[in-house]
């Protein structure tokens, strides 16, 4: 035996089962036959697995670590959510494993590998197919969906998106009387953006105003604001009077791109965002946006995941954190528009 002790692969090979089965037996979760459970436990004893750190984790059913999975890691949104998540993990004296899949084809395998190294995992909506999320839940792995539309039988935590975006859009349509609004963001890209597009459409419907047929489908980075602005100003039949962006990063990119074209914000084109990142309050007039408590979202995700690991939450949980419209100058308020 090596000085590092036996590996999980050796235990699985000795017992003639998969690594996932060894994990389920050690944690006492999932459906495993009595004969298989006995073979795995005997293999653990044979290899004297207890003295190693991973062995102690197997026997106790704990790794003293939580996992969190995002489609990427760049940008202030992810850093704030991670900071909140980590704060709560530190308080609970557990480690944090962070995975950015970048939506690679190997995303499912990457997540499955993480699951066997943590006690529970929070997965951002859109990273894994619904059937894969259910499969992880059904096999007994504590899984929590983050910023996702609910998946039947899997606990979910998210911020309120649809109603907040409807309120923001109504402010532009009714309070300012703007017409020809454009929505910048790709509803197919994330559940949050989908809800925000629906809120944008709902506000138009309630105001009796025809919305644009399609959003300007771009990503969520500042550079995407430049791409969207070029499309709006060069390809649309009419210049939009206001641009509703799916997040603040895109909105800030749009503001810079609009000004590069010699236009004024908000006098010529009003611009709004969503998230209320730190930069939103630093531009000259301030960015009108929707504040979502990103750090609190991360902290509450960790708190719920810890309870989930201990079997203390219901699988039907759908926790929604409230958001708030923040009015600044980029929509035209206080600018004399």
Q: What is the rounded Rg?
A: 24 Å
Nearest-integer average pLDDT: 88
Strand sequence of the main sheet, in spatial order? Answer: 2-1-3-4-5-10
In CATH, what is the class of the largest domain? Alpha Beta
Output the number of helix runs. 12
Q: Are there runs of 5+ residues with pLDDT below 50, and where? A: 51-60
The fraction of residues assigned to DSSP E strands is 5-15%
Please give the CATH architecture of the largest domain.
3-Layer(aba) Sandwich
Summed up, the domain count is 3
Assembly form of the protein: single chain
Instruction: Give the name of the CATH superfamily of the largest domain.
Output: Response regulator
> How would the global form be characterised?
elongated
Helical content (DSSP H or I, runs of 4+): 40-55%
The SSE string, one letter per element, is: HHHHEHEHEHEEHEHHEHEEHEE
What does the main sheet amount to? Answer: 6 strands, parallel
Q: How many β-strand stretches?
A: 11
Structural class: alpha/beta
End-to-end distance: 77 Å
CATH topology (fold) name of the largest domain: Rossmann fold
Keywords: DNA-binding, Transcription, Transcription regulation
GO molecular function: DNA binding
Pfam family, one: LacI
Domain HTH lacI-type: 6-60
Architecture overview:
It comes from Tenggerimyces flavus. Residues 6-60 form the HTH lacI-type domain. GO terms for molecular function: DNA binding. Keywords: DNA-binding, Transcription, Transcription regulation. This is LacI family DNA-binding transcriptional regulator. The structure is a single chain. With 337 residues, the chain is α/β, with parallel strands linked by helices. It folds into three domains: 8-54, lambda repressor-like DNA-binding domains (434 Repressor (Amino-terminal Domain), Orthogonal Bundle), CATH 1.10.260; 65-159 and 294-321, Response regulator (Rossmann fold, 3-Layer(aba) Sandwich), CATH 3.40.50.2300; 162-291, Response regulator (Rossmann fold, 3-Layer(aba) Sandwich), CATH 3.40.50.2300. It has twelve helices and eleven strands. The chain has helices at 8-15, 19-27, 34-46, 53-60, 76-91, 107-115, 130-138, 162-175, 191-207, 222-235, 248-260, 294-309; strands at residues 65-70, 95-100, 120-124, 143-146, 156-159, 181-184, 242-245, 270-272, 289-291, 318-321, 324-326. The strands form three sheets. A six-stranded parallel beta sheet has the order 2-1-3-4-5-10, sandwiched between helices. A three-stranded parallel beta sheet has the order 6-7-8, sandwiched between helices. The protein has a two-stranded antiparallel sheet with strand order 9-11. The longest helix has 17 residues, at 191-207. The radius of gyration is 24 Å and the shape is elongated. 44% of the residues are buried. The model is unreliable at 51-60 (pLDDT under 50).
